[in-house]
Amino acid sequence: MSMTLHDFLLAKRDARLSELAPVLAALAQACRRISTAVRCAAFTGQTGLAGSGNVQGEEQKKLDVLANRLMAEALHACPQVRAFASEEDEDSTPGSHAANPDGVLVAFDPLDGSSNLDINGPVGSIFSIQPGPPGDTVGTADFLQPGRQQLAAGYALYGPATVLVVGSVAGVHAFTLDEARGEFLLSQSGLQIAPDCSEFAINAAYQRHWHAPVTRYVGECLAGRDGPRGKDFNMRWMAAMVADVHRILQRGGVFLYPADQRASARQGKLRLLYEAAPMALLVHAAGGLASSGHEPILDILPASLHERVPVLLGARHEIERLNDYHRQA
Ligand code: P6P
Question: Which atom of ligand 1 lies nearest, measured to the CA of 238?
Fold first, then answer.
């Protein structure tokens, strides 16, 4: 019988993750509850808009608000969590053990890709676990750490199956929810991304706004076997970063949400602390790369909690090519 997340952490298959067992258990519980809420929304009155907006100025779905509450409840109660920060909230929130000197910080996107909810498309939750600050006080500024300092990161993908992926620098592992048992069971250990690929993900609707390096890269992919790449490429765009990243961890590829010439996208769309940095840790641990086009995402020091950053991630050789095109430009 497959190993549960609890037994995996107990067995110390990854010492870094095992040290974080309490907070990973809290996150797994919250993701399990969010999975149920998403599946049952149609008959629990949880579909549609909440009638409120978030700090990003976005209209919140009822499930955005509920997922945020479920994550906050689980993390606030966890003795290992000193504070947490959400995409939905302006500032961080202290946990019930804010002065715990061995405690950690958690930044999360409670429901990524919620525009897919109305079409029963994939959505997910993303989380980043950082070391807590010295001393016994903690606040929003303590979250402004470069991604390389993360202790662990992960996501839950609410798709045909609910899958929880967690990783540290030592490796990335996937657990699939056994709904009957209410347990996440180990389904893949040591996920790896091939250095080459033939699949790219980008929202091609913004093509006219792209900067030259991205236009060149995508154009060469589209030129196929008769073009400079000498092979055909496939394209996917899930409108949920979690689903695109999960596909890359399963079968390779690249995911691009670049900066473009629109005033609203000068730094891209995705948020550094709870979307780009956690995914970058997972991708690097699986042998891939994650870049802004100008530097590794893991090296970027955030200036603010909700800072956006361009994201180019996935197959090593492809991201190296994109970095080279940015250097040439
Ligand atoms: P667009 C979801 O809103 C999200 O933050 C990511 O999960 C996703 O990859 C991207 O935005 C989709 O953006 O511009 O295609 O709607």
Answer: 9
Q: Residue 206 CA: which ligand 1 atom is closest?
A: 14
Q: Are 193 and 316 in contact (CB under 8 A)?
A: yes
The atom number, within ligand 1, closest to the CA of 240 reads 7
How far apart, in Å, are the Cα atoms of 244 and each of 67, 84, 270, 313? 21, 25, 13, 10
User: Two tokens at 134?
Assistant: 């010295």
Tell me the one-letter amino acid at 178: D
* Overall average pLDDT of the 242-256 stretch: 98
pTM more than 0.90: yes
Does residue 203's CB lie within 6 angstroms of at least one atom of ligand 1?
yes
Q: Which domains does the chain possess?
A: 5-189 (3.30.540.10), 199-328 (3.40.190.80)
Ligand 1 neighbourhood includes 240 CB (under 6 angstroms)? yes
Percent of the chain with pLDDT over 90: 97
Binning pLDDT at 50, 70 and 90, where does residue 54 land?
confident
Q: Return the residue whose CA atom lies nearest to atom 3 of ligand 1.
A: 113
Secondary structure class of 148 (helix, strand, coil): helix
